Amino acid sequence: MTKKTQEPHYIFESSWEVCNKVGGIYTVLSTRAKTLQEKHTDKVFFIGPDFWTGKKNPLFKESKTLLAKWRKSALEYDGISMRLGRWQIPGEPIAILVDFKPFFEQRDEIFGWAWENFRVNSLNAYGDYDESIVFSWAAGKVVESFYKFFGLSKEDNVVLQAHEWQTCLAALYVRKYVPEVATIFTTHATTIGRSIAGNNKPLYDHLPAYNGDQMACELNVESKHSVEKQAAWNVDCFTTVSEITGRECAELLDKPADEILMNGFENDFVPSPATKFNAARKAARQTLLKVANTLMGTELNDDTIIISTGGRYEYQNKGINVYVDALNRLRWDDRLDRNVLAFVMVPAWMKEAREDLKAALSNKKYNPVEAGAIGDPRITHVLHEQDSDKVLGQMNWLDMHNRPEDKVKVIFVPCYLDGNDGIFNMHYYDLLIGNDLTVFPSYYEPWGYTPTESVAFHVPCITTDLAGFGLWANSLKGGPSEIEDGVKTVHRSDYNFDEVSDTIRDTILHFSQMDKAQVNAARKHAEKVAEKALWKHFIKYYYKAYNKALAKRDERVKR
């Protein structure tokens, strides 16, 4: 007898990044929301922390009438203070922002409850653990309150999906107090895996030898690891985002993932038709070249190859160190016969935009070649503690100073490109489209949205097979993906830094020697790769997870 396939009628998702743009999980949720909302109109609820009490959140539009009776009941009878409204993203799903601060008074009781019911060890907690646990407790209570207020039952197929360790306790709370709700926990990166990689320990070659609990103690992340591990073991469906992170889960959490939920996206932010796309690309290149020429006192033209890397400032995990090293190797390569302008676009501890650069850019009569370089020709903004910055430190070590004779010039853009940075005043996407090539040589990257975004804008990219996206790109080809395919996937391990750096250098050099037809073909292939990563293709894995969670729920409730 075949088992029936079930779909949810109500979907709750809890995440620290709901209406809170912090990292890649924001992109996962915000791009997928439209696909879910179209099928389950206003039956999809995103629960996030309310950091904007008394202030306007630009990502959230509050509604005083939306589910007003429930909101009032939740405050009066459950002690939950929350704001309801619409997340200002495509699809405009319902967002529930919870004021979790009042629950801090119950922190010790919450910690005790977590230990007594699920053996979550909070004894060695510090930093953001307390805040996250209290928020996730409140998020669990939100689901419970909704379920009971509207008189829902097992037949209503309610699902809660909790993202990352920060919301694990929400899933455990619901598992305990609303057992009819099916629970899913998604780890986008294991606490231990990220910690091992971030502490310069070899992760991959030694993965089978690591004991997750022991490493959690050694790296002082015992409490985060504990709640993550217990969630993985106690939810109805445990998921992660790539095969490579799935291996981490099996080894470090002692629990294989039940389903792999690859990260898709929507391409509605890519300019269309071709006339708009080409105009946006031209505007981006003009801006990038103008800032670079003004800063360095050069006259680089549109024949210059423009390259960038971006993402969070995780120096080793994101492979920023390899990127800078590869550019230095390219700088000394006699085979290079074109100018290369490379950007490092990662937010650092930025103080302000450089006033001298701002003034020069706003002066229409300013002649960069006559004026020469302005101050340090390698950075666009002023940093706090600039002398200890890792990017500039590596460039100093390698004697990279953007001299006139250097064919490879590297500029550090250490700010959030939100359209108001003071120098470019354009969003990251609006600059990304102007690149010829991007490089994301990650060492630790469960999926990798930056290369996904790059190919969406038809920009070929270089990534590694330690990134989920890179492995997926290889799977499309059935072997190592090359730059002609739109994505160059470099083999990376714990110990082959030099080989990776040389391969990136050689790939950029090869790209610089491709003719216009070859470049256009690579750009077309990048676009095709991006199309295969749309949510309309990847959403099916979520429905498999929903079905598994609901089936497991049925087994539990029967017992």
What best-fitting shape do the alpha-carbon axes yield?
A: globular
Continuous helix count: 20
For the largest sheet, list the strands in their spatial order: 3-4-5-2-1-6-7-8-9
Average pLDDT metric: 95
Strand segment tally? 17
Please summarize the sheet with the most strands.
9 strands, mixed
Architecture blueprint of SSEs:
Elements: E1 10-14, H1 24-39, E2 44-49, E3 60-62, H2 68-78, E4 81-87, E5 94-99, H3 107-118, H4 129-149, E6 158-163, H5 168-177, E7 182-187, H6 191-198, H7 212-218, H8 222-234, E8 237-240, H9 243-252, E9 259-260, H10 274-296, E10 305-310, H11 320-331, E11 340-345, E12 350-353, H12 355-362, H13 368-371, E13 381-383, H14 390-397, E14 408-413, H15 428-432, E15 437-439, H16 449-456, E16 461-464, H17 468-477, E17 487-490, H18 497-512, H19 516-532, H20 535-558
Parallel strand pairs: 1-2, 1-6, 2-5, 6-7, 7-8, 8-9, 10-11, 10-15, 11-14, 15-16, 16-17
Antiparallel strand pairs: 3-4, 4-5, 12-13
Helix pairs in contact: 2-4, 4-5, 5-8, 7-8, 11-18, 16-19
Describe the model.
The chain has 559 residues and is α/β, with parallel strands linked by helices. The chain is built from 20 helices and 17 strands. It is globular.
Structure keywords:
single chain; 559 residues; alpha/beta; nine-stranded mixed sheet; six-stranded parallel sheet; 17 strands; 14% strand; globular
Please give a quick description of this structure.
With 559 residues, this protein is α/β, with parallel strands linked by helices. 43% of the residues lie in helices and 14% in strands.
